[in-house]
Amino acid sequence: MRIFLDTSALAKRYVQEPGSGELMELLTSNTSEIFISTLAFVEFASAMGRKLRNKEIAEAEVTEAIEEFEKDWHQVFAKIPLEDMLAETASAIALQYSLKGADAVHLASAQVAGAELFVASDNRLLRVVKKMGINSYNSESGPYRY
């Protein structure tokens, strides 16, 4: 299965949050290709910095999460680069569905990847994903049902 992770889902792979167990079960129980946007690299660092600043996790946990993410960045993920055509598609999606720019980039990236499943923690974004004909899943909602 071709699975696309937006950054809200991606973070659950490295930091224990609601839905982390369900996400890991999904990713390990399938022979899957895991796609992410290159935008996720910056967003992940930002999310870890925010968690540290808000004292949600310790500095050692942030360091470990970033090290694991960077390893997976090179070895696990199929990355969709933010190029001109993708930016134009994302712009059209943002305008059509009133999405934040980053969400539109993730959705356009999922389309480019030919994703069969889009995983995120943002239910508003997942409603748009469904409208665009891609299966969606929020791991905070419980185990994935095929």
Q: What would you say this structure looks like, in words?
A:
The mean pLDDT is 94. The chain has a five-stranded parallel beta sheet. The chain contains seven helices and five strands, in the order E-H-H-E-H-H-E-H-H-E-H-E. 55% of the residues lie in helices and 12% in strands. Helix 3 (39-53) runs antiparallel to helix 4 and helix 5 (84-97) crosses helix 6 (101-113). 38% of the residues are buried. It is globular, with a radius of gyration of 15 Å. It has 146 residues and is α/β, with parallel strands linked by helices.
Average pLDDT number: 94
Report the end-to-end length measured between terminal Cα atoms: 11 Å
Rg computed from alpha carbons, rounded to a whole number of angstroms? 15 Å
Work out the number of β strands. 5
Reported CATH architecture: 3-Layer(aba) Sandwich
Domain count: 1
Strand percent estimate: 5-15%
Q: Segments where pLDDT lies below 50 for 5+ residues?
A: none
**CATH fold category name:** Rossmann fold
Give a quick account of the main beta sheet: strands, pairing sense, barrel closure. Answer: 5 strands, parallel
